[in-house]
């Protein structure tokens, strides 16, 4: 490969790595610090290739400067696996979500606008409920959250709390997987599933208000809704990040850009998966239990406040790299 082609293929990576180094040197948090450390290894490899192929002195000096700056952070002993997991949970994951705030708002609006529309439409006209939910869906709402619905009957359908938890893990992971995999269709699949779930859940909520008991519904969902809904939106962010890699490769080859986008999406995929797991745990072992409604509302409100604080504050001021 000739030097100009080598530069064209990798310069975008070098520029992004240099920007991350500037943040590290200010001792701020980089959302994808683990990915940045992998990029450092690639830059070292590029420097070795440039020297071996006897590329120009200017290119070799540029790469050498990046490697020298990066070695101050990435050549230190790494933390144990347990410490890396702890770092990811307390700093890396929330910092990644903050860094991708544009994708968060896109994902949220694509879900929330259809949700509000469908809830209002079904609340005003039952024909919309039949069109969106179908007869079976409307019957399901009335069976679970109707004015005469019995919580014990609802729980009894799953035989045990464990079976309820397993069902919700499967159901929510399926939705999150659709969000992420939809990114491979240039993000169009992700946008479709966000919109579809917004319309369906909005119609579901609207029909609860139309023919069911809203208190039964909200007291059930309030406990796990923060983890489940935000986890779904973050899975949507991961799918959109993959889609952006396909649509906007920049100076990288499309395959390289897709691989790079997938690496940047990994923290969001891992994080949303954990959120889905714990949401299903709460749903199976708390939400459907015979607990005072006031206790469920207090616990659910506290969950939302803690989650907002986590994503806004966790990891700020910490050094970006796990040590």
TrEMBL record:
Q: Does the keyword Transmembrane helix apply?
A: yes
Q: Name one Pfam family in it.
A: SpoIIM
What does the UniProt keyword field contain? Membrane, Transmembrane, Transmembrane helix
Highest taxon of the source?
Answer: Bacteria
What parts of the sequence cross the membrane? 103-123, 184-209, 229-248, 269-289, 295-313
Q: Which InterPro entries match?
A: SpoIIM-like
Q: Per its record, how is this protein called by name?
A: Stage II sporulation protein M
Q: Which organism is it from?
A: Sulfuriroseicoccus oceanibius
